[in-house]
Structures are given as C-alpha cells and as structure tokens.
C-alpha cells in the first residue's frame, strides 16, 4: 500500500491536483472537506454541527474528522492506497492516522506540501466563491480566518512528518500541469 498526503493551505490546489493524481495512481481520494460538505448537503446531525464551524473558517473537532476517516478506511479495506487531502490537519489527527493505518514511524509514502503565497490564495478562493457556492469562499474575512487557522494549527503537521523524513515541498504557483508534473516526479521517485 502506498499512501500520499497532499498538504497545503486553503486554495493551494489540493483538490485540483488530487483529481489528477488519483486518476494516475488508482488511489482512493479521501478529502475531509468533501466528506463534511456531503454531510451538510445530507442535513445530518454531524453536518449541521460542522457547518457552523466551517462557516467561521475554523477546524471541525478532531474526533469528528477522525471518525469519518476511520469509516472510510473500513469501507475501502481493499484499496491499493489512499490520497489524503485536507487531512491530517492537526498533530492529533496525524497520530490517529498512524494508528488507524497501523503504520510504524508514519510509514506513509510521501507528504507533499504545496507552497502558495497568501495573496494568491485569497485571489483564488474569492474567484472560486463566485461560482462554487461554497459558503466559506464568499467572504474575504472567512478566507483569511481559514488561512490563520492553518498557520496556527495545521503547519505543525508538517513538523510531525519531518521527523520521519517524509516531507517534500513543491511550489504551488504556476500552471496546474507544471505543478502536477512536479508532484508526479516526487511520487515516482518514492513509489518505484
Ligand atoms: P477543505 O475542503 O479541505 O478546504 P481547504 O483546505 O480550505 O482547501 P480548498 O478546498 O479551499 O482548496 P484546495 O487546496 O483544495 O484548492 P483547490 O484545488 O480547490 O476544508 C474546508 C473546511 O472543512 C475547513 O476550513 C474546516 O472547517 C473543515 N475541515 C476539513 N478538513 C478538516 C480536518 N481534517 N480537520 C478539521 N476541519 C476540517 O483550488 C482552489 C482554487 O484555485 C480553485 O478555483 C482552482 O481552480 C484554483 N487553482 C488551483 N490550482 C491553481 C493554479 N495552479 N493556478 C491558479 N488557480 C488554481
């Protein structure tokens, strides 16, 4: 099994690149943001609780997202590997993932971190908000709150994986195809 974590701030291109990567490598795409939006669309109790947190640009509680990921791993027990997008976002989530996957020394394949400047992130997300219907994209203050939350709580996740020598930083500005080619180079170097 080969697992990839695609990491980066809101708007860095995780979702865009994930679509291309799962098609190439046949991995199961697990996006906690997508799973949460599906709960909201289905008006579940979990979705109702998560929506108010997400609309403020804050993180949903660890136990909620860890529970969702645990169910998905069980549902795809025969997968050849997973591409995690937007998860883990805290060190507690990273430690939980190691336990769920029964990994020693965070034995994921690679942790790819997309680097994008804050002004580019805000520009992209305000642009997407015009058409996506995502309620956390329409207000610049909420977008900046998401980035602040990322800097405060999520960047520590990269330090967690650095101790296991899993982190590769990839420039996330430029053409989508060029960024994809850089990601692919890094994955191929570790997969084969
Ligand atoms: P989530 O859904 O994970 O959103 P996010 O991290 O804020 O990331 P985005 O989906 O906004 O951006 P992305 O990096 O996928 O970029 P994309 O490819 O779409 O999380 C949403 C919320 O859910 C969180 O705030 C939190 O509340 C909650 N949540 C989720 N996971 C959680 C967890 N693990 N723990 C706790 N809470 C959790 O691209 C963005 C835009 O840019 C698009 O319009 C795209 O077309 C464009 N674009 C992409 N690449 C390029 C490029 N190279 N050049 C120009 N434009 C580009």
From TrEMBL:
Parts of the chain that traverse the membrane: none
Q: Where is the signal peptide?
A: none
**Which residues does the record give as AMP binding sites?**
32, 37, 58-60, 86-89, 93, 134, 146
Family matches, as InterPro entries: Adenylat/UMP-CMP_kin (IPR000850), Adenylat_kinase_CS (IPR033690), P-loop_NTPase (IPR027417)
Q: What class of enzyme is it?
A: transferase
Q: Where in the cell is it found?
A: Cytoplasm
Q: In which pathway does it act?
A: Purine metabolism; AMP biosynthesis via salvage pathway; AMP from ADP: step 1/1
A GO cellular component annotation in the UniProt record = cytoplasm
The UniProt entry's GO biological process terms, in alphabetical order, are: AMP salvage
Q: What is known of its domains?
A: Consists of three domains, a large central CORE domain and two small peripheral domains, NMPbind and LID, which undergo movements during catalysis. The LID domain closes over the site of phosphoryl transfer upon ATP binding. Assembling and dissambling the active center during each catalytic cycle provides an effective means to prevent ATP hydrolysis.
> How does the record describe its quaternary structure?
Monomer.
Q: What protein does this entry describe?
A: Adenylate kinase
Q: Which organism is it from?
A: Panacibacter microcysteis
């Amino acid at each position: 099994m080969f697992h990839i974590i695609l990491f980066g701030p809101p708007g860095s291109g995780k979702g865009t690149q994930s679509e291309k990567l799962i098609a190439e490598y046949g991995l199961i795409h697990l996006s906690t943001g997508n799973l949460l939006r599906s709960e909201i669309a289905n008006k579940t109790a979990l979705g109702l609780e998560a929506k108010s947190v997400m609309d403020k640009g804050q993180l949903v509680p660890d136990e909620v997202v860890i529970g969702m990921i645990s169910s998905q791993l069980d549902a795809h027990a025969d997968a050849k590997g997973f591409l995690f997008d937007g998860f883990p976002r805290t060190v507690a989530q990273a430690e939980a993932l190691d336990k769920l996957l029964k990994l020693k020394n965070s034995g994921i394949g690679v942790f790819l971190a997309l680097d994008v400047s804050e002004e580019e992130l805000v520009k992209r997300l305000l642009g997407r908000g015009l058409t996506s219907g995502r309620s956390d994209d329409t207000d610049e203050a909420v977008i900046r709150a998401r980035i602040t939350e990322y800097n405060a709580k999520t960047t520590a996740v990269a330090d967690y994986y650095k101790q296991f020598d899993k982190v590769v930083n990839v420039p996330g500005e430029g053409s989508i195809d060029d960024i994809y080619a850089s990601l692919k180079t890094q994955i191929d170097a570790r997969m084969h």
